[in-house]
Amino acid sequence: MLKDSQLHNEKSKSADPTQWFHQRATSYVATQIIFHLNRQGVFKMLFSKETASVVEISEHLQLSKTILRTLLQYIAAVEDLIEEVKPDVYKLSSFGRKCVERFSRGTGQELSINFFDVRAGAYGPVWSSLDKLLKGEHYGETVHRNGEFAAEAVYKLAERFLPSLEENLQLSKAKCAIEWGVNSGLTESLARKHPHLKLGGVDRSEVEIERAQKNSPKNSVWVQSNILDTKKWTTFFKAEDKTLFFSLHLHEFLSAGEEAFKDVLKDLREKFKGSHLLFFEQPQLELSNREHTPEIVWLYAQSNVLIHHLIGNGKILPENKLIELLTSSGCRLVHVQDTKYLGYKAFLVEL
């Protein structure tokens, strides 16, 4: 039996150019429409109701009936997410409900659905300005991503790692957990499930620090700082506390260069020797891995490298290079654990 990636390659070889063209064009347009309908709350409303008419949706969400009708007709015609049960009345298909359940977080009014928040939302302005980047204009001048959508996507992704985080927390025997980059919601989850655990976090964003403080115990410690500036933020935490530092953002810390991050590790080893670091990363996959990698994991991995390397806000390393980075500064590798989610692995090292 052919693997997913082999099937993909076989289909690509035999595909008709005209078919390829229209499939790509339709997928691009459908992705944009689904993203924007979702941002306006259309899928959330359809998820909460058996059926809803164009008039009901447009009046409830204050949308243009004419534009909404056209977009829903298109998606019902080219995708399997929604069905038109009678003229101008729609419902989520059984597949559509599965998609919402799979890519959502929360319930009721707190329900948040991730339909291409990063690829179409956060990076929409980047895709429309690729010509400027290609011609040498630097990201951060007139080309910017939408950080709001990127942060929301991280928040929805992170819950998948909570079981692994708790397992490694127990293994490290830490009494204190400090998150680097606090937009994941994981620290808040730990606060609910482990009320006696000391908690805190470090983030460059004042907004994220304020949000974390609001949703965490009063005795937790939150510091606005760049992780690379260890002289600033480490003074807020007690060296005698056995601590688990953890993060989903290792690739972003590497954007300043591997040597700068090695300096962080060396400084932490001096101040928190015996504590642990835990990173959740999807390592970069080499081309030689493709035929052995499920197609979904392969595509996600390539997109992950693309969006971080394109604007220089991160550097994703292959697994062996990542281990070498962590251990070359004197840290002891405890294990590399498969999280069983999209190729992400948990890297636990002792300082």
Strand order of the largest sheet: 8-7-6-9-10-12-11
> Radius of gyration over alpha carbons?
22 Å
Count of separate DSSP helical elements:
18
Which class best fits the helix and strand makeup? Answer: alpha/beta
Helix content: 40-55%
- Show unreliable segments: 1-7
Provide mean pLDDT, rounded.
Answer: 90
Globally, the shape reads globular
User: Major β-sheet, in short?
Assistant: 7 strands, mixed
Query: What percentage of the residues does DSSP assign to strands (E)?
Result: 15-25%
Gist?
This protein is of the alpha/beta class.
Task: Explain what this protein looks like in three dimensions.
- The chain is globular and about 70 Å long.
- It has helices spanning 4-14, 17-39, 42-48, 54-61, 65-78, 94-102, 117-122, 124-127, 130-134, 147-158, 162-172, 186-193, 206-214, 230-233, 250-253, 258-271, 295-310, 319-327, and strands at 52-53, 82-86, 89-92, 104-105, 112-113, 176-180, 198-203, 221-224, 243-247, 276-281, 332-338, 345-350.
- Helix content is 50%, strand content 15%.
- It is α/β, with parallel strands linked by helices and 351 residues long.
- Strands 8-7-6-9-10-12-11 form a 7-stranded mixed sheet, sandwiched between helices. A 3-stranded antiparallel sheet has the order 1-3-2.
- The termini are far apart.
Task: Describe the SSE topology.
Elements: H1 4-14, H2 17-39, H3 42-48, E1 52-53, H4 54-61, H5 65-78, E2 82-86, E3 89-92, H6 94-102, E4 104-105, E5 112-113, H7 117-122, H8 124-127, H9 130-134, H10 147-158, H11 162-172, E6 176-180, H12 186-193, E7 198-203, H13 206-214, E8 221-224, H14 230-233, E9 243-247, H15 250-253, H16 258-271, E10 276-281, H17 295-310, H18 319-327, E11 332-338, E12 345-350
Parallel strand pairs: 6-7, 6-9, 7-8, 9-10
Antiparallel strand pairs: 1-3, 2-3, 4-5, 10-12, 11-12
Helix pairs in contact: 2-5, 4-5
